[in-house]
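Subject — a protein and its fold
Fields — amino acid sequence, structure tokens
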Amino acid sequence: MLLAIAAPYLILGHDAHILVHDNLNQINMLGIHGGRFAAPLLPGSHQPHFTLQGTPDIFHLAHFKLDKPLFALGYFPGFVLNELLYRLLALLGMAALLRCLNGTFGYPQLLATLAFAALPFWPQGNGSIAAFPLLAVACIHLSRHHHLLPSLVLIAFYALYSNFFFIGIYLVPLWLAAILWLLFRGRKPWPLLAGCILFLALSAISHFPVFYNQLVAHIPTNRAVQEFAGVSTWQSAKAVVMNILASQPLAPSLHRWIILPFCVVITILLWRNKARMRSVGLLWLGIISCATLSALFFWMPIQRLWQALGLGFNFSRIYVFMPMFWYLLLAFCAGWLSSRPRKVWKTLAITILSAQLLLNLGITVHRTIADRPTFRQFVAIRQFDAIKTAMGTDAHQDVVGCIGFYPAVAQYNGLRTIDSFSAYYPASYKATFRSFIAAELEGNQELRTYFENRGSALYLFDDEIGFDYTTQNYPADLSITCDLNIPALQQHRVKWLIASVPIKNAAQRKLQPVITQPGNGYYRSLTLYRIKEEL
């Protein structure tokens, strides 16, 4: 299974596809610059500002995670190795968890484990979801006072290889609830408490910039001003149903077509079997609870309370637990069916499990082979080599702005950008950046609403291009009117603009075309403009 997932990357190399959203257009958030991990991990006298120019150094530190040594080899090989690492952990973790919960490990459990590890996980999450079963095993052992040192080592590894604000922040309340439950049952919870403290301590270290700012520096960030549109009770109820039916983008479980109908039928058949229904019922309760809590975040009364508290955190992503629940449920249901006396039931169970495995593997591998852009097309190294040559000897020191394409591309090629994708940055910088694009926002309501609310994409928007830069499928005769605040950009040391669509009023804005890299042969057409100093 791991070989099947690795094969397209090994065969196609840079001509393989990597999902753009989150994984490429946000790679600066991983500290990737110049093709590899380049951001500092610890505060120092010199903090290079590859983006978010002029903001406090704390916003330029990378998170201290175990994927960083992989990316030091180069982003592409690091990405592939990271893919294989967290899938290996998914295999080991789900196998260990099923054996721990079920007592046995046969063909149904093996196939369910392989299917789980073949899911199209969110790569930037590292082990957040894939290695979560391994964390669950460690916590079970701690609660039973077994294998204490190995369990604490697993917890430490998970804390340094997961995303605290993606999944860890939901774990802490569950951890505390488990500790209280042990106390209520008269059992000693101290090993589990030690694991929780270790997880929190190492999460604070691995996410040092965020924790330091929240607890010490107290620099207001863009998160504090985010608001979400509240929905009615009926819409929330429909969202609960859809959360059960749908596979979430950042936590895909691909359960709708096979797992859901199969497990519903088996659950009905098990309804009178109290011993089996305890495990199956708890898993259904976990799925329904996650689906409900995720939907309730957007319910109008909750939204009003949440915004009044000003917490700036979106708890709707509690759906992150659902993939593990679905595949545990699949393994339990298929395990029961295969234990029936007649051979036909075992054959049916294996067929169901194999179909789910092939579905997951097919989707994961197919998108790597067939989807576009390829990694080579996206990063456009040859194209940017020509652009950097045209910029001259100061190319790596000058600040550029990007119009109509993701600034992560310029950052990957070693350029410093005024624009960025950053989920967490100073609120003051948002006001500064708004001054660059205010006129463009006035011409496009969708862009204005997005920027004034969420604003994670600090892009030099153009009202004629819009928001999505993924396809670059612009009409051949399209040219734009640039209404950016050029003097304000110059005050922030921006010397160049790179645009994927020609600027028809370049002369009036004192923008001098330097070099054009046409789209034929490249994924996007790019023109480099020098901002004339006399402006």
